[in-house]
Design goal:
The chain has about 130 residues and is mainly alpha-helical. The chain contains three helices and two strands. The chain has a domain of about 90 residues. Helices cover about 55% and strands about 5% of the residues. It comes from Microbacterium galbum.
């Protein structure tokens, strides 16, 4: 018995709309156990803007610091003279010098983002101490 060479017919699968609950059109989000209202929308937009400013500031600062490190390495040709494991020191600085910089900016960003979210929670739910 040989397999049928004709391909199977295509079937369109769609999601059922039965039982779907309409979501409110607020752009904000509520804390657990609360209903979203206009104040939550305002606070959450403020949080998103604060997180965006923080991300842009960290990214810009990182690019500036990386350019400064590259500039220092380029401006000091004496860094190419010392050799470590048959590799010039300037190459090692370019290869591994950025990782501590990345780590510092990651820690700064994570702490500041957590602080922004704590402030949001305090504004959105002033009764909650925490």
């Amino acid at each position: 018995m040989s397999p049928d060479p004709r391909p199977l017919p295509r079937v369109r699968v769609t999601a059922s709309t039965a039982g779907r609950v309409a979501r409110p059109l607020t752009r904000g989000f509520a804390l657990p156990g609360r209903v979203a209202d206009e104040a939550d929308a305002v606070f959450s937009r403020g949080l998103v803007r604060a997180q965006l400013r923080l991300a842009l500031a960290c990214a810009t600062s990182f690019v500036v610091m990386a350019a400064a490190l590259t500039g220092v390495i380029a401006a000091l040709p004496a860094l190419g003279d010392p050799v470590l494991w048959v590799v010039p020191l300037s190459w090692l600085l370019h290869a591994y010098g950025f990782y501590p910089l990345i780590l510092v900016f990651a820690v700064i960003y994570a702490r500041a983002a957590a602080r922004n979210e704590r402030r949001y929670r305090q504004l959105a739910d002033p009764g909650e101490a925490g």
